[in-house]
Design a protein that fits this description.
heterodimer; A: 284 residues; alpha+beta; 11 strands; B: 340 residues; 7 helices
């Protein structure tokens, strides 16, 4: 083969790779991560998103609040949150849902809208409940990955949630739980984690996006640059969605003095909310 | 463990009795495997479930008991558990109104069936120093412990005065520690090591104790639950120093122990793998005003099988609602108490 054909061939290969990359940006990166335990990419560290998916995983403009009531010239922040002012408002974001909108069944979409209208009473984050997967990944809190040859454990700052990634599938989880049962394996440089056995009580965000206890999540963690991982999660839940759908986002590794997980055990922070009415002398 | 090392253990045990060597040195008879980054490997699932408790029960006079005595007590314990495990009589009706209708039957407990063996000795308390097997409270320490304990046992005015276990903030008693002590159930711990860290996932309540290897303690005004832990290696022993304890965690109680940990205490823990299936866990508590001396304990942590399940406490915490609501109901119906 003459050199000119080689070049053409390479160019068309590059085009193909480029096209493939548009569909699946993570898998086709040429980046080779430093090796860690067992020759796999070293994903140790404190990771966090830099997005607003926890407010709403779908594209959304900034808005005044998460809870509203009708006002004389349109909705205004609900009484319960109005005192928060700008602190209670929602930052904009392009969302993390691929090929949206989220493919709800009509009934499930109605539930989502109802959830949104009753956000204050229903969002499990307000009561400091464990976040479930994938919400744990993109809450505005860091989480730390501890990776050895034998084990990978995730510790989330929010609510002190933890996940142990099992590398031997023990079979179906004997009982549903908030963080589910995680079974992992490596596909090349991608850590793939199948999460099953989650209950129906977690949400995807503060926008009322929900699921049933049938939800299965397959997560993919792929290093794409120094200190950056692509996170993809496919969600299958026929009771709620008409087809499997995916979210994807970037995780960033904190460095230096920022890379120390703090404690956010919020259970005590919600005691007045949850038990205040049961005080001997309820506060006026 | 090879035979030569097994043969060494009783000899080392005998040396210990004569006070010739310290426990950590005895453990050096076994060399732990190494992680891929060269640290001694403590990883896996471990349990401290045991009949042995933090302090020595009044009916036992010495730290060490004979195998015959242990067998007698273990049989009695088994009988108690069996008696407490009979099915409830479905025709019995509601129990009489009383302050304490009783708690779990044995099905729900997982407290172990054996006294712990440390260095070949059958132990009656975790505390080895002082020799009486009791926390050496000073007068001030005892006073503070009583005040904190009395509030927890008698005050139901709001969530903040209830125990951390009832509030689902941390596990019952000192399950997550430090020091990490055995309680009635969920006595399981997963250790995972990565470069620069040893992390202990405590089953109750899904708490990760993230131990940094080296570095500085948190600023004095940051006092997390379970304190702030920094570790280093001394030979094959992981030494963990914890300060910045949360004052809210000072008094912790479980059926198996009550402990007042003065908030400015320094707790030093030592983890030494003494066999493939056991870690010797030692702890020392120091605080000059609450205790008359530093006090020390020794606990074997035995390898156990997983997986460890999620202990999601807060999410299903009907108990705290019911405890507070029950207290309110009694206040509004004083005759309820009179009719008992």
């Amino acid at each position: 083969m003459k050199p000119i054909y080689v070049l053409v061939g390479l160019a068309s290969l590059a085009t193909l790779v480029g096209m493939a990359a548009q569909g699946a940006p993570a898998a086709t990166q040429a980046y080779v991560a430093p090796r860690g335990a067992g020759g796999h990419p070293d994903i140790n560290g404190v990771w966090e998103v830099m997005n607003t998916a926890n407010w709403d995983i779908e594209p959304h403009a900034a808005r005044a609040a998460l809870a509203f009531r009708p006002g004389p010239f349109g909705p205004v922040p609900a009484k319960e949150v109005v005192a928060l002012g700008a602190v209670g408002s929602v930052p904009a974001g392009l969302g993390i849902v691929e090929n949206g909108p989220i493919p709800y069944t009509p009934e499930a979409l109605a539930v989502k809208k109802d959830n949104q209208a009753h956000w204050l009473e229903r969002d499990p984050e307000i009561k400091c409940y464990l976040p479930g997967v994938p919400r744990a990944t993109y809450m505005p809190f860091p989480f730390q990955i501890f990776q050895s040859t034998e084990a990978i454990v995730f510790a989330y700052e929010y609510a002190g949630a933890v996940r142990n990634i099992l590398f031997k599938d023990p079979g179906p989880a004997p009982v549903d739980s908030w963080m589910g049962q995680s079974v992992g394996h490596w596909e090349g440089d991608t850590l793939v984690v199948a999460v099953t056995g989650q209950n129906d009580s977690t949400w995807f965000d503060r926008a009322g996006n929900h699921h049933s206890a049938d939800k299965k999540v397959v997560e993919r963690y792929t290093p794409t640059a120094a200190g950056v991982m692509r996170y993809e999660a496919e969600i299958t839940d026929p009771a709620t969605f008409t087809r499997p759908w995916k979210i994807s986002l970037n995780l960033y590794r904190r460095a230096g003095q920022d890379a120390q997980l703090q404690q956010f055990k919020c259970v005590e922070f919600v005691e007045e909310l949850m038990y205040g009415r049961l005080r001997k002398e309820p506060l006026k | 463990m090879n035979r030569a090392k097994q043969a060494l253990l009783p000899i080392l045990g005998a040396l210990l009795l004569t006070g010739v060597v310290a426990p950590a040195q005895a453990a050096a008879a076994y060399r732990a495997p190494r992680t891929s980054f060269g640290d001694p490997d403590l990883q896996g699932l471990w349990t401290n479930a045991s009949i042995t408790t933090l302090e020595r029960p009044d009916n036992l006079k010495s730290l060490v008991i004979t195998p015959a005595e242990a067998a007698r007590l273990e049989t009695a314990n088994k009988a108690w558990l069996a008696a407490n495990d009979r099915p409830t009589d479905p025709k019995a009706g509601a129990p009489p109104v009383s302050d304490d209708p009783g708690g779990y039957n044995s099905f729900w407990l997982d407290l172990g069936s054996k006294y712990a063996v440390v260095n070949g000795e059958i132990r009656t308390s975790w505390i080895v120093d002082p020799a009486n097997g009791h926390v050496p409270y000073s007068e001030k320490g005892r006073h503070d412990a009583m005040a904190a304990g009395m509030r927890q046992f008698t005050n139901f005015d709001g969530p903040e005065v209830r125990s951390l276990g009832e509030r689902c903030i941390v596990g019952y008693g000192s399950s997550g520690g430090p020091p990490m002590l055995n309680v009635l159930y969920n006595n399981n711990y997963q250790i995972v090591q990565s470069p620069g860290y040893v992390t202990i996932v405590v089953e109750m309540n899904h708490d990760a104790r993230i131990i940094r290897l080296g570095g500085a303690h948190l600023p004095a005004n940051i006092r997390p639950w379970m304190g702030d832990s920094i570790g280093h290696w001394e030979g094959d022993t992981l030494v963990v120093e914890t300060t910045n304890l949360n004052p809210g965690q000072a008094f912790t109680a479980d059926i198996r122990h009550r402990i007042y940990l003065a908030p400015d205490s320094k707790v030093t823990e030592r983890f030494t793998r003494v066999s493939p299936a056991e870690i010797l866990y030692e702890f020392k508590v120091e605080e000059p005003t609450a205790y008359t001396q530093a006090w020390r304990g020794e606990i074997p942590m035995r390898a156990t099988k997983g997986p460890m399940y999620e202990y999601a406490c807060h999410e299903g915490n009907y108990a705290l609602t019911d405890i507070l609501a029950g207290a309110r109901a009694q206040e509004h119906k004083p005759q309820a108490r009179a009719t008992q």
